[in-house]
Amino acid sequence: MGTTSITAEPGVPIIDITREFDAPRDLLYRAHTEPDLLVQWLGPRRLTMKVDRYEVRDGGTWRYTHSEDDGTEYGFHGVFHGTPSPEGMVQTFEFEGAPGHVSLDSLTFEEHDGRTLVRARSVFQTVEARDAMVESGMERGVNEGYQRLDEMLVRLAAPVG
Amino acid sequence: MHADRLSAVFGALADPTRRAILARLAEGDRTVGELREPFPVSQPAISRHLKVLEGAGLISRSRRATARLSHLEAEPLREATHWLARYQAFWDERYDQLDELLASLQTTQQGGNP
Prior knowledge:
The structure holds 2 protein chains of 2 kinds.
Chain A: E1 5-7, E2 14-21, H1 25-33, H2 35-38, E3 48-54, E4 61-67, E5 73-85, E6 88-95, E7 102-112, E8 115-123, H3 127-137, H4 145-157
Chain B: H1 3-13, H2 16-25, E1 30-31, H3 32-36, H4 43-55, E2 59-64, E3 67-72, H5 74-110
Helix pairs in contact in B: 1-4
């Protein structure tokens, strides 16, 4: 199991995420493009994910929702730019709760010795939009994440006492 | 946490010497001279680092007799850590699930399915 590295430099509206997986590139590509596979990992564990459409081609559109048990839905949609391939894919991303705030997401898949490095870059319209995304948009589904939060606090705080 | 302050905190933390200074201050207040000891840099350079840390709210400075003491302010550090940790947890959960899916897909493939 790999470690997810997240980089958010001050002053630039970009987030870079890298993660290595113990699987060949073609499988990663399938997991990122086939709806019946996507729903098994893309959403937070406690929410139910449903894919309305995923037109994996240049100019194709996509939309999915995450639902709470009480029926509350969070919708997301966007457009694919360029032809998606096992080398990578580019798409826009928009949370329907904040229309007009769009990020441009690029994914690349690099295979080495049967393992695949996934690089995800999101470019937001402004630094503020990026920070708001990190701060509020991702609050959901991190119940078990607080354990990791503690671990990370310990790690970061360790040299600081 | 205000976005500008957050940027200042992350900017300050981006430098390894400044992180090391924070680590030393966690052991107690220090003068510039004491902070300088482990680093191959000049005192003015350390002073510049302290100024950046102070600007980000990560340290405060006071005078004791003729020496100027630096003091670690932990709260902005905690807030900054929390800010990214939540996002990190989101991605960790997502990718842990992807690990599980990939493992099960590969097991299926080895089982002889197309």
